[in-house]
Amino acid sequence: MRVRILVVALVAGISACGAPTAETAPRGQVPVTSASAEQGPALKAELTMQGKPGLGLLAATNQGSAPITFQGWPKLSFTDAAGERAAIPVEQKLVPGEGPSITLQPGQTAFAGVQLDVDDDTKSVAINEMTAELPGVPPAKVAFIGTDGRPISDLGTMKVSEAEVSTMQPSSQGVLAFG
């Protein structure tokens, strides 16, 4: 009987001492969270590079527990080697055409084409990170995947002066057809 009460008390004590929440985290520290229905929408974003320099297929997967509905273009942003926001202009292209309204159920993916102007001119910025954002979903860090299927971990060698992005589509067909 004592052992059972002790176990119950230990479990209750451990539960009460969980990770800090937004209400209990010390000022200036980010609270620790776990994926849950309370957390809301979550996005996984990968840019798989294609054979043409700077051309990539952006795959945005709903990793949340609820559907995400959006239309149009993903919002792309970049940081430089120092971790500061990089002023890289992103032009929205009607490729392959008008973006339909898309509802991604948990686990489903939508696609967009991305054309990065990778060169070494004076306007180019060595990028550290790219993020993609869909309406109503927090921005997601984009994982770059090489043409060999492996993650590209050091983006510092990629210098970008501008970018183009196609409309989000429910399939990858046509999203890479930049003119």
TrEMBL record:
Protein name: DUF4232 domain-containing protein
Sequence ranges assigned to domain DUF4232 in this UniProt record: 45-139
Keyword match Signal: yes
Source organism per UniProt: Lentzea xinjiangensis
Entry-linked Pfam families: DUF4232 (PF14016)
Secretion signal span: 1-24
Keyword terms of this UniProt record: Signal
UniProt entry tagged with the keyword Signal: yes
